[in-house]
Write a structure and sequence with these properties.
Layout: E1 2-4, E2 11-15, E3 20-21, E4 24-25, E5 32-37, E6 50-51, E7 55-59, E8 67-72, E9 76-81, E10 84-88, E11 93-103, E12 106-117, E13 128-131, E14 136-139, E15 145-152, E16 155-158, E17 162-165, E18 171-179, E19 184-194
Parallel strand pairs: 1-5, 6-12, 13-19
Antiparallel strand pairs: 2-5, 3-4, 7-10, 8-11, 9-10, 11-12, 14-17, 15-16, 15-18, 18-19
Amino acid sequence: MLFRSLDGFVGDLCLRVREVNFGCAGPWSDTVCVDVLDEPDLTISYDAPVCTGDTVLFQVDFFPETFYSWTNDGGRIVDTANNVIRMVFDSAGTYELGIFGLNICGSGNGTRLVDVLPSTPVNAGNDKTICVGAEVNLNAVTAGIFTYTWFAGDTIADMDASLDVIPDSTETFVVLGLNADGCPDLDSVTIFVQY
């Protein structure tokens, strides 16, 4: 059963009753549980910052037996299910995200302005061919990038814009660059080793 919230109580309410007649108490009834609802809370939440290219999860509190409908004026919807939506924003700017919720207790609307920050493309340079045993300098110095992290396979190679390596076989190095807003970008460079 579903009931509308009284005095702000929301959730499961379980009841048992018994009859008292002329001071004599009868047996307790079986327990009956009801789900007490309220109008949907449509406060949209998400983790900031939002950067171009990010897949962002937006959500509102879930209410059972509630219909949800999302609207947006920018970005691509990747996935949606009831009270959650995942979106990707390809361009920086300010976008409005909206949601409509409806259940037997009422309806409501929620909106949220989302500031999408630009990512700064990081440049790991061109692929290179070297002879076995030769040292090569990888350099990703890029204007607007403030933090660099190099990865080689499953390990973190270095936390600098420049990296000196002596690979013994062909290997791809990936650099993660963060700009001042904390927006990431990736680039890779492959070092081909000749014997």
